[in-house]
Amino acid sequence: MQKPLKKFYLLTVLVLTVCLAASCSILGDFKKISETGHASINGKKVNLKTMGDPEKDCLAFGYLKIPTEQLYIQSDPSKEPIYTTPFVFSGSYADGSIFCFPPFKTDLAFQLVSLRNSNFNVITTFLPQLGAEGKIAFVTHKKGLMFIGAYDFITENNTGMIVPLTRKESAQYELKCLLKLKKLLQHTAWLPLIEERIKELEK
Asked: What order of strands is seen across the sheet that includes strand 159-164?
């Protein structure tokens, strides 16, 4: 087995094993990281305000209609293994999850491998299979800002699935995300791009 492929599978097995064995308690720690204003890369918190170059990197962000902690892996075996949690903006349950990833190099492929939602005393954990439908997956295919979409999480017969919202709904949530990002990333090189995209959506 080629070395990059072997490293990818080892990382995937490790992350999924930890999530299953610990009922995703690892995400509880990542939630604490997010609440302090940080995302994480390979278990270490990072500060979005001091990261990335809009001329080289991709800043991906999205929306989910329920509050969640999320864990993603870099799923292209030819690239470096990465597991990451996005920064999730705080808010009420009805606000859902506005989330933003650390800036990454282009041409990396990420896929959701664990999602956790707490609603009063009910905790829902969702572990989509790699390559399966009903998940969030994206490639950092361009530099600058990239909206990966708006999604809902539904359950049927104790089975969970992530469903993309309509294009019209997604555009509304993209604007909502950008307004949050504008406040978070003031005085950074990302601000002009954010303001430009807000103007385009408000036309």
From this structure: 87-88, 97-100, 58-64, 144-156, 159-164
Residue 116's CB is within 10 A of a number of other CB atoms, namely 23
Q: What is the pTM of this model?
A: 0.81
CB contact at 8 A, 87 and 39: yes
Burial of 184 (0-12, 13-18, 19+ CB in 10 A): middle
The DSSP 8-state label assigned to residue 188 in this structure reads: S
Q: Look at residues 32, 113, 101 and name the one whose alpha carbon lies nearest to residue 71.
A: 113
Tokens at 7, concatenated: 């490293």
Separation between Cα atoms, residue 202 and residue 173, nearest integer Å = 12
**CA–CA distance, 1 with 162 (Å, rounded to integer):** 33
Q: What are phi and psi of 50, to 5 degrees?
A: -115, 15
User: Largest Cα–Cα distance in the chain?
Assistant: 52
Tens of pLDDT, residue by residue, the chain (203 residues): 455 545 555 555 555 544 444 444 555 555 555 444 468 999 888 888 888 899 999 999 999 998 888 899 999 999 999 999 999 887 766 778 899 999 999 999 999 998 887 776 666 777 776 665 667 999 999 999 999 999 998 877 777 788 999 988 999 999 999 999 999 999 999 999 999 999 999 98
- Do residues 54 and 110 lie in contact, with contact meaning Cβ atoms separated by under 8 Å? no
